[in-house]
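Try this one yourself first.
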């Protein structure tokens, strides 16, 4: 700073205005630093807020299910799924771990996912498909063990065990108008899958066939939106054609497990 420079140079008199100049310069520098930090911090915490909004939609889905508004409840879960699909990418883009460390984004994500991918859709299945409560309890138990597993997402970007896609499973059972017994068998099999040592493709992260995974996944998401819009009036052709991606997904997961072994 100028004031200190003149002092160190041995000048007998240092103009007072230089002292005030230095004070103003320091203040401006501090303000600029604060602005720069806010430009980074605000988006980072904004991503946390976006993730948190998923909890609100999950609760909304539960309330709509309680009120018998089953189609609207699924729409709320669809919004929650969309948020879940984009918040991870945004978190990495804005370096949330470093810039917003006060909130544990991974913990919050797991809590919300358990609500929107497990609790809400299983309650929906109880209301629409009359699934026995003990079957749903098995699904919930398997899922919480999966969500709390420290290796739920592997280092090579796979899901470890069935990743609790209950909202998709129960929606298809509803569309296909399956019997309660058949639905229960399917749910029990998937519940067993939540504890089986099998890897499942992480659609947006697994490096194998990543572009194809994202493209087919995008088409599948659009098909689900159309099915959700048409709901119980969905044509069979649309329902069965939408099975292309699930068959591909499980087939690819099975193939990659065999290949690794």
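Now uncover the answer:
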């Amino acid at each position: 700073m100028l004031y200190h420079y003149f002092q160190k140079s041995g000048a007998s008199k240092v103009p007072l205005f230089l002292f005030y100049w230095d004070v103003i310069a320091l203040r401006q520098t501090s303000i600029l630093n604060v602005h720069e930090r806010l430009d980074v911090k605000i988006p980072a915490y904004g991503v946390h807020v976006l993730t948190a909004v998923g909890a609100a939609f999950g609760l909304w889905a539960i309330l709509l299910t309680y009120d018998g508004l089953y189609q609207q409840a699924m729409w709320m879960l669809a919004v929650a799924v969309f948020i879940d699909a984009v918040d991870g990418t945004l978190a990495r883009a804005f370096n949330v771990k470093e810039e917003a460390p006060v909130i544990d984004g991974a913990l919050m994500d797991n809590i919300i996912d358990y609500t929107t991918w497990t609790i809400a859709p299983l309650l929906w299945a109880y209301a629409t498909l009359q699934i026995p409560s003990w079957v749903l309890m098995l699904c919930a138990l398997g899922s919480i063990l999966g969500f709390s597993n420290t290796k739920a997402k592997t280092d090579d970007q796979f899901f470890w065990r069935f990743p609790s896609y209950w909202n998709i499973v129960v929606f298809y059972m509803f569309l296909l108008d399956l019997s309660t017994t058949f639905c229960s068998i399917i749910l029990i099999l998937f519940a067993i899958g939540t504890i089986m040592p099998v890897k499942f493709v992480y659609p947006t992260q697994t490096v194998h066939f990543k572009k194809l995974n994202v493209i087919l996944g995008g088409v599948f998401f659009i098909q689900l939106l159309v099915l959700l819009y048409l709901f119980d009036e969905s044509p069979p052709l649309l329902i069965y054609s939408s099975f292309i991606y699930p068959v591909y997904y499980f087939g690819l997961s099975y193939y990659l497990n065999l290949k690794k072994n």
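Discussion: The mean pLDDT is 85. The beta strands are 158-160, 199-201.
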